[in-house]
Amino acid sequence: MAEPIEFFFDFGSGYSCFAATEIDDLAARHGRSVRWKAFSLGSSFKVTEAKPLTRTPLKADYVALDWARIARLKGLSFTMPDGHPHAGMPALRGFHWLDAQDPALAVRFAKDVFRAYFSGELAIDDAAAVAEIARPLGAEPSAFVAAVASPELKAKARTAGEEAVERGVFGAPWIIVDGEPFWGWDRLPMVERRLAEATAAATA
Predict the structure, then answer these.
(1) pLDDT for 16-47, tens place per residue?
(2) What is the homologous superfamily of the domain 5-203 according to CATH?
(3) Where is the catalytic site (predicted)?
(4) Catalytic residue among 13, 16, 40, 43
(5) Has 142 been annotated as catalytic?
């Protein structure tokens, strides 16, 4: 069986948000599964000395325009959150907590977080608010809040960032297909072509 696609994402990344709406369907068209991997871009920024796009002179205005443009193109609801970007550690840790129990549930959580955050309805740095996103998925809010504050989940989130950097990840979304990396939502057509080529080679 073909290897899963690896999908590295950051909850504060608008481009990750857009990729999250497409990556599973794209993979399924080529008989692949997706391994969702939440990490903090802050881990990469420590190495690259970069800053969030929306806090970088010249880039900030363009990114706001680009995200709104992509949302219109895709027919998605999108609102730049006040004070963006938020660190989002409760969301990040919550993903890893759910992922350890049920990866499919964690993916549903991630999509719901993206949808709520980029609709201006969720503060991803508020553990209680993020817990409410997990509630419909069967997570008891008090258990969620306790988990994301635990040393174990803090260490897991930190390790996820370190592992991403070790893999050469410096941006989000970051997609790896059979060892080949692709950076950015706009690389999804290239990802699709790479998958098609791999399928053709396997059946030749």
Answers:
(1) 999 999 999 999 999 999 999 999 999 999 99
(2) Glutaredoxin (3.40.30.10)
(3) 13 (nucleophile)
(4) 13
(5) no
